[in-house]
Amino acid sequence: MITTVQTHIRHQQQNFAEASGTFSWLLSGLTLATKMVEAKIRLGGLSDALGAKGSVNVQGEVQQKLDVYANETLLHTLGGRDAVAALVSEENEEPIIINADPDSGKYIIVFDPLDGSSNIDVNVNVGTIFSILKRTPGQPLEASILQPGHQQVAAGYVVYGPSTVFVYTAGNGVHGFTLDPAIGAFVLTSEQMRMPEQGPYYSTNEANETTWPLPYRQFINRLRRGQLNGKTYSSRYIGSLVADFHRTLLKGGVFLYPPTDKSPQGKLRLLYEANPLSFIAEQAGGAAIDGTQRILDLQPASIHQRTSLVVGSRAEVDALHALVQKEAADEKKES
Ligand code: FDP
């Protein structure tokens, strides 16, 4: 028989702390919303869903119609669930409080409703990324939202591609599901996914290379020259984080978005991009750092905080980390 996301999480709950039907109810809100988004994306130019909305979000980015639709859909499906204390979205400046009662509103869901907006109109993969946090008893709700990533209860993403896949972790491995359009359900297709220890690809926006800090430039040159365990690398960059990450999870290698002149703190968002993907990477045997520190140990200061990100197989992430540390040691010697 098939295993859906809800059945899977219920079996998992027998083995981990979040032992309640509430949790699978939250995931059902996410699968419902992402199936609705998938249906809209699938129609492409046949619906009125492509193109810009004519508005700008809190990040100063032009909102696409599908950004707005995906956000409204997630807010609607998750906002009706009592266990949700607050929803935090890339598209909203402030958290949306759903249930302030700490006894029933126990979870905070943070999400990027539609990642990779620049790819929507050109029929290239986009995705949804989410992170589930548990409200900290006795603390104001705002403080619970700004938890370091290692405290995530679950995280996952959906890639809207040639097939639509749902990948999640609840701290007990990484599991992948494929949407079966015939029955309208995400069906388990890969259990306990593992990221290869070293991979064949690096994935980055190479146009920014001249403005990266030195260790990142040295790192990419090492990969190009086959100087990491003699492996020859190819380059792959889709420009949708979730799709680039999904390939890295399956095939191995590294995705990196270093600091640039334009985004000295990095471009990607800590709470709803870097944290959930880093949790998944670690659960699959990979690693994720901001250059110097483990992403999951970063203490967020604000909900839309940006970070640099290096995520992928252990061999590549460790090699970049060593170069950053060497640069810091050299600078210390010189000063
Ligand atoms: P987008 O701006 O198209 O929404 O964080 C957003 C993101 O895409 C990521 O999905 C992607 O990895 C990155 O930005 C692409 O940035 P560049 O265009 O600067 O390469």
Would you summarize the structure shown here?
The chain has eight helices and 17 strands. It has helices at residues 5-13, 21-43, 65-79, 141-145, 214-224, 241-251, 270-283, 314-334, and strands spanning 52-56, 62-64, 84-89, 96-97, 107-115, 126-134, 154-160, 164-169, 174-180, 185-190, 201-203, 234-235, 253-257, 268-269, 287-289, 306-307, 309-312.
Explain what you see.
With 335 residues, the protein is of the alpha+beta class. It contains 8 helices and 17 strands. The strands form 4 sheets. It has an 8-stranded mixed sheet with strand order 4-3-5-6-7-8-9-10, sandwiched between helices. A 5-stranded mixed sheet has the order 12-11-13-17-15, with helices on both faces. Helix 1 (5-13) runs antiparallel to helix 2 (21-43), helix 2 packs antiparallel against helix 3 (65-79) and helix 5 crosses helix 8 (314-334). The chain is globular, with a radius of gyration of 20 Å. The N and C termini lie far apart (65 Å). 2,6-di-O-phosphono-beta-D-fructofuranose is lined by residues 115-118, 205, 239-241, 267-268, 273. The site of 2,6-di-O-phosphono-beta-D-fructofuranose (FDP) has 11 residues, from loops.
